[in-house]
Design brief:
The chain is mainly α. Helices cover about 85% and strands about 0% of the residues. It has one domain.
Length: about 270
């Protein structure tokens, strides 16, 4: 009788082991593997999200950053076209008497109007104003083409392009926050504008103008890096509806940096006819 109970018990024990341990000796076969697979799948599920965000950032980077530089180059081409096609004598008439003030305040008004259009996400109006500003700047530069030799202007342009490219790339790749530097440079720019106005109407000194040109080169060189970094940061604010406006805003800032840097370098290194 005892032997029968013992055999029956051993049968239950073997049945238990076969059912839950199996040949591998692991309790609850497949349970650990199943949960591991579930956990592993959970971690892998984050990867498509990260990949999607990375792809979106890459697309917006191309949309905002690349278009900003393309729009800037387009504006420079418009400026060059106006500078070489508009009669310098007609430009001189625009710079004499009250026409000069109308043109100066007109360009300033275009800048404010363009900023307003961008704030309203009106890319068409901002683009039109941007094009007009680039053309008017070319009209003004046609006078410079008459004053300075063509070879010196080409050299200064290449120097400007090289300095601009170096600082623009630095602004895009640096991990240093340039916000503080940019704020200081903007305040210095307002000081430069006031000093230029005073020198134009009161001091009228060539040495003062030379010194202001050096300061201007430093300011716009730094602003190029600052504005480039701002464009890169604007990628995080970009969406399908505001890409063009963000690109135009960045292009306008870069265009102003380039043109003003060119003008200051012409004052320093340009050779008059």
């Amino acid at each position: 009788m005892d032997n029968n109970y013992q055999n029956q018990y051993n049968g239950y024990q073997n049945s238990y082991q076969d059912s839950y341990q199996g040949n591998t000796g692991n309790s609850f076969p497949g349970w650990e593997d199943q949960n591991y697979d579930m956990m592993q799948g959970g971690f892998e599920a984050e990867e498509p999200v990260k990949k999607t965000l990375a792809d979106f950032k890459s697309i917006m980077y191309e949309e905002v950053v690349v278009k900003s530089y393309l729009f800037m180059v387009a504006a420079l081409l418009i400026t060059a076209f106006a500078a070489f096609t508009v009669s310098p004598y007609a430009a001189i008439k625009m710079l004499t008497g009250y026409n000069f003030y109308l043109l100066m305040f007109g360009e300033l008004g275009i800048v404010f109007a363009s900023n307003w259009a961008i704030s309203k996400n009106n890319a068409v109006l901002a683009g039109i104003l941007y094009t007009i500003y680039a053309y008017l700047t070319g009209v003004l530069l046609s006078v410079i083409c008459m004053i300075y030799t063509g070879s010196s202007l080409v050299k200064v342009f290449l120097l400007t392009a090289g300095m601009f490219l170096i600082m623009a790339v630095y602004g895009l790749v640096t991990k240093k926050d340039l916000t503080k530097m940019g704020n200081i440079l903007i305040m210095a720019l307002w000081g430069l504008i006031l000093a230029t106005v005073f020198n134009m109407f009161i001091f009228r000194g060539s040495m003062v103008d030379f010194a202001l040109s050096i300061v201007g080169v430093l300011i716009f060189t730094g602003l190029t890096a600052y504005d480039s970094q701002k464009i890169k940061e604007n990628v995080y604010m970009a969406n399908d509806s505001n890409v063009l406006c963000l690109s135009l805003m960045g292009a306008f800032e870069l265009y102003l940096d380039f043109v003003n840097l060119f003008l200051k370098l012409v004052r320093l290194f340009g050779k008059k006819k």
